[in-house]
């Protein structure tokens, strides 16, 4: 499953749940904005759209299916990009809340964090001079003392349930240990090739953004799974986004960009849209003689069931 054809899948994570509105005025919050930015990112070359929902009144992350329904069907009607529904949600949501919309639509792909962790952006709070909404400061500060929960039993139950739906996963691995957790589920038969590993670098609580760590994640995955059995992808948080994802492609992987992962386009310059980041990484990759995978090619590479089998 290595990228021998030089086809690189671009995933765009459109809004996420970690960044708060005060970090960027361009972060899409309303269903209309999420839809518009997702479609523009797909047009720019993103084959996969990784989606979260937010309360349109104040930008707070929400798991509510009725909010997802305000933009997901509209996106599906206007693009053939793969729609990837997050099961990560946020540390404030229960597991059932995080799974609620994915259970409704049974998508081609969901994201799945491969372990519990203290995912935190709390140092950013001290750098913020003002807040757009009154919930944001406490939301960021409280990350210091909150655990994102995905136990082995949680993961087993998700894999078992969604296997019946034919949904495949973006396995988000925030550390080397998450790769070994993934290997455990491969060993007991709950995960089968081809599987899609999203290597996440630069989040406090996970593996750091050092380039050497990316090589460690890639070589560890090769030892555990055999390169022919999985697709590798790279997510670089914050200012490390473009350099790390470019390195990931050079190592034979795929890439993920988007305002969920970084609100910047370059040093000191905020990205005004998700599509700006997609266009930038596409240009870099094409200048390096890589070809960008279409949604149809991404479906074939990842063994997805196709939109005809989704309940959107």
CATH superfamily: Aldolase class I
CATH topology: the name is: TIM Barrel
State Rg. Answer: 18 Å
Query: In whole angstroms, how far apart are the ends?
Result: 29 Å
Number of strand elements: 14
Mean pLDDT equals 96
- Ranges with pLDDT <50 over ≥5 residues? none
Continuous helix count: 11
The number of distinct structural domains comes to 1
| Strand/helix succession | EEHEEEHHEHEHHEHEHEHEEEHEH
CATH class category name: Alpha Beta
Strand neighbour order, sheet with most strands: 2-3-6-7-8-9-10-11
Largest sheet: 8 strands, parallel, barrel
Shape: globular
* Share in β-strands: 15-25%
Task: Report the CATH architecture.
Answer: Alpha-Beta Barrel
Sum up the structure in keywords.
312 residues; alpha/beta; TIM Barrel; eight-stranded parallel beta barrel; 11 helices; 36% helix; metal-binding; zinc; BKACE; 3-keto-5-aminohexanoate cleavage protein; transferase
Short synopsis of the structure:
The chain has 312 residues and is of the alpha/beta class. It has helices at 31-44, 65-68, 72-78, 95-105, 136-141, 152-163, 176-187, 211-225, 241-250, 274-287, 295-302; strands at residues 7-8, 10-13, 48-51, 53-54, 61-62, 82-86, 109-113, 168-173, 195-201, 230-236, 254-257, 264-266, 269-270, 291-292. The chain has a single domain, classed as Aldolase class I (TIM Barrel, Alpha-Beta Barrel).
